[in-house]
UniProtKB/TrEMBL annotation:
It comes from Ahrensia marina. Belongs to the short-chain dehydrogenases/reductases (SDR) family. Signal peptide: none annotated. This is Oxidoreductase. One of its GO terms (molecular function) is oxidoreductase activity.
Length: 249
């Protein structure tokens, strides 16, 4: 797939977890490509910094301070988008939490429930509220952020890995249901990236050895292109390759 940035002039994009890391850089690059961005995050300061950066480049940004544990708030967001814009062209479901890296039996119930609410339940609510909006686009694009641990069953990563595996199933199912429409739905494994979450997971790792969030985001942006044909697949950023899940007929 060509890594050239697509022309997104006149398109509307929704990005969650947009106050820092990959989400911040992805939103910024969407704006640079011409898209109007709806930036969602719970950290107001980070959203304001993003807004400043986008406006400095002549772009448009609408800030939505929202904690994704507020599931009814996600539902309301879809209604607001429908009323103001009538459609949505791009969804980037990026926000997530790590939880704790520990044996499955040692994870606190509160930690597990919060992780599943943010990483999984909120994504389902996003799908439900944006599906009709994305179907109104001539080239709707949905990107759901996954992880390599969704496929590896790595010790101590159980809840986080389970949430990402479930997201991939949701994405694949959604893609199968919309395969004959202009909507393209794909999962993404961003790989190890220099982010706050990565530092939490791997505190002894040398951050300078990892790609920056800006570099990783630049390798995901092409999935927003109106010319994209792939759907129901996994885009692996480290190898820059597609994994085909073999969608059911």
């Amino acid at each position: 797939m060509s890594l050239a940035k697509p022309d997104l002039s006149g398109r509307l994009a929704l990005v969650t977890g947009a106050s820092r890391g990959i989400g911040y850089q992805f939103a910024l690059q969407l704006a640079e490509a011409g898209a109007e961005v709806i930036a969602v995050a719970r950290t107001v300061g980070g959203l304001e910094e993003l807004d400043d950066s986008i406006k400095e480049k002549g772009g448009k940004c609408t800030l939505v301070p929202l904690d994704l544990k507020d599931l009814e708030g996600i539902d309301r967001l879809g209604g607001v988008i429908a009323e103001r814009w009538g459609k949505l062209d791009i969804l980037m479901a990026n926000a997530g939490v790590l939880g704790t890296i520990s044996p499955v039996g040692h994870v606190k119930a509160k930690t597990f429930d919060e992780l599943m609410t943010v990483n999984l339940n909120s994504v389902w609510r996003l799908i439900r509220t944006t599906d009709p909006l994305l179907r109104q686009s001539d080239a709707g694009r949905a990107i759901l952020m996954s992880s390599s641990v969704a496929h590896s069953a790595r010790a101590y990563w159980g809840p986080y890995a389970a949430s990402k595996a479930a997201i991939e199933i949701l994405g694949r199912t959604w893609a199968a249901e919309t395969e004959k429409t202009p909507l393209r739905v794909n999962n993404v494994n961003p790989g190890a990236t220099r982010t706050h979450m990565r530092a939490q997971a791997m505190p002894g790792e040398k951050a300078e050895s990892l790609p920056t969030a800006q570099e990783t985001a630049s390798k995901i942006i092409p999935l927003t292109s109106p010319e994209l044909t792939q759907t129901g697949m996994l885009w692996d950023v480290p190898t820059q390759s597609w994994q085909n899940y073999h969608l059911p007929s």
